[in-house]
Specification:
Elements (H helix, E strand, L loop, with lengths): L5 E6 L3 E8 L2 E9 L6 H12 L7 E6 L7 E3 L6 E3 H7 L4 E6 H8 L8 E4 L9 E6 L3 E9 L2 E4 L14 H14 L10 H14 L9 H9 L3 H25 L5 E3 L3 H5 L5 H9 L5 H5 L3 E4 L4 H9 L4
Parallel strand pairs: 1-4, 4-7, 9-12, 12-13
Antiparallel strand pairs: 1-2, 2-3, 5-6, 8-13, 9-10, 10-11
Length: 315
C-alpha cells in the first residue's frame, strides 16, 4: 500500500505555497496568491481541487508568517485569520501542525545539501546554535539549538526588534521613519516594503521627491544607476549585516547564520556581500567572536517545505 500523502503549506504575506508530501519528497507544488481567496480553507480546498490526490490527505503541516500562541492565528502581513481547530475539521484532518514560517525554515537547515546554500565571507561552523533570518514580505527570524543529538527550533518574532543605526546616515533615515511609524523595527527596513522605505527616505533627506516604486522597481533603479535606489540597496545589505550579527551574538550562533527569504536572491549581484559581512563582524570588543562565524545564503527554492516535512516525520 502506498504511503499516504500529507498536505503542506507555506503561508507568507503575499503567496501561499501548497504541496503534497511523503517520505520521498514533495510533489504538485502550486503557488496561490493569498488575496485571491477569502480564507485559508478556501485556498486549501482550491489547491486540492487543482491537484486531485488519489486520497484526501489526513495530516497536514502549515507554516504562517505570524506568531502561533494559541488556536487563533492572524497573519501579520496578510488578511487571513483562522482557528487551527476549525481548519483541521474543515479539511477533514486527523493531524494538523501549525508553526511559524521561520521556525519551518530553521528546521530545514540540517537537511540542506551543499548545493542549497552559498557561503558569504569566511568562518567555519562549530557544533553550536544556528541563526536563521530572511527578508521577504516581512523579516523572519529563528534559530536552532542542539538538544540531545537533535535540533530544537526557536519560535520568535525577531524581525520586530528595534532597528539600530551604525552610521549618521542610517540614524537620519531611522529618525525620519520614527516620525512616520513611531517604532522602527528591523522589518521596516529589511523587507520588500523596507527596501521601498529606505529608497523614499533617502530621497527625501536629499530634498528629492521619490518616484512611486515597489521593491522590484527599486532594485531595477539600482541596476540602472538611480543614486537613491543604489544607496537603498547598499544600506539594506549593511543593515542586514547588523541584524545578522546581533542574532549571532544573541544565540551564540557559532554553527552559522543563514539568510533565507525572497529579497536577497532577487537582488543577485546587487547585494553587496562585502558590506554585509563587514557590518556582521563590526561588533566592537566581540568582533573576534563573530569573525569566525560563517554566514550562508540559502539557495534552496522552498526550504520551508523541508522543515514542514520534518515536523511530520517525513524526512
Amino acid at each position: 500500500m502506498p504511503e499516504p500523502l500529507a498536505l503542506i503549506a507555506d503561508l507568507g504575506g503575499t503567496n501561499a505555497r501548497f504541496a503534497l508530501a511523503d517520505a520521498s519528497g514533495t510533489r504538485d507544488t502550486k503557488i496561490l496568491h493569498a488575496a485571491d481567496y477569502p480564507t485559508l480553507a478556501d485556498a486549501a480546498h482550491a489547491y486540492l481541487n487543482m491537484v486531485r490526490p488519489a486520497a484526501v490527505p489526513r495530516q497536514a503541516a502549515i507554516d504562517v508568517a505570524s506568531p502561533v500562541t494559541g488556536d487563533r492565528v492572524q497573519l501579520t502581513n496578510a488578511a487571513w485569520s483562522f482557528s487551527i481547530a476549525a481548519l483541521k475539521s474543515d479539511l477533514g484532518l486527523e493531524r494538523l501542525e501549525v508553526i511559524n514560517d521561520f521556525t519551518a525554515v530553521a528546521l530545514a537547515v540540517p537537511y540542506l545539501d551543499e548545493g542549497d546554500r552559498s557561503q558569504i565571507g569566511g568562518g567555519a561552523p562549530a557544533e553550536a546554535p544556528i541563526g536563521v533570518l530572511g527578508p521577504g514580505t516581512g523579516l523572519g527570524v529563528s534559530g536552532l539549538v542542539p538538544n540531545a543529538g537533535r535540533w530544537a527550533a526557536l519560535a520568535g518574532e525577531g524581525g520586530h526588534v528595534t532597528m539600530a543605526a551604525a552610521t549618521e546616515r542610517e540614524a537620519a533615515v531611522l529618525d525620519r521613519l520614527r516620525h512616520r511609524f513611531q517604532h522602527v523595527s528591523a522589518e521596516r527596513v529589511l523587507s520588500g516594503m523596507g527596501l521601498v522605505n529606505l529608497y523614499e527616505t533617502l530621497a527625501q533627506l536629499d530634498g528629492v521627491d521619490p518616484v512611486v516604486r515597489d521593491a522590484a522597481a527599486v532594485t531595477e533603479g539600482a541596476r540602472t544607476g538611480d543614486p537613491h535606489c543604489a544607496e537603498a540597496v547598499s544600506m539594506f545589505a549593511s543593515m542586514l549585516g547588523t541584524i545578522a550579527g546581533n542574532l549571532a551574538l544573541t544565540l551564540g550562533s557559532r554553527g552559522g547564520v543563514y539568510i533565507a527569504g525572497g529579497i536577497v536572491p532577487k537582488l543577485g549581484s546587487l547585494f553587496d556581500q562585502a558590506l554585509f559581512r563587514q557590518r556582521f563582524e563590526a561588533k566592537g570588543r566581540l568582533s573576534s567572536f563573530v569573525i569566525g562565524i560563517p554566514t550562508y545564503l540559502v539557495t534552496h527554492p522552498l526550504p520551508a517545505f523541508l522543515g514542514l516535512r520534518s515536523v511530520l516525520g517525513l524526512t
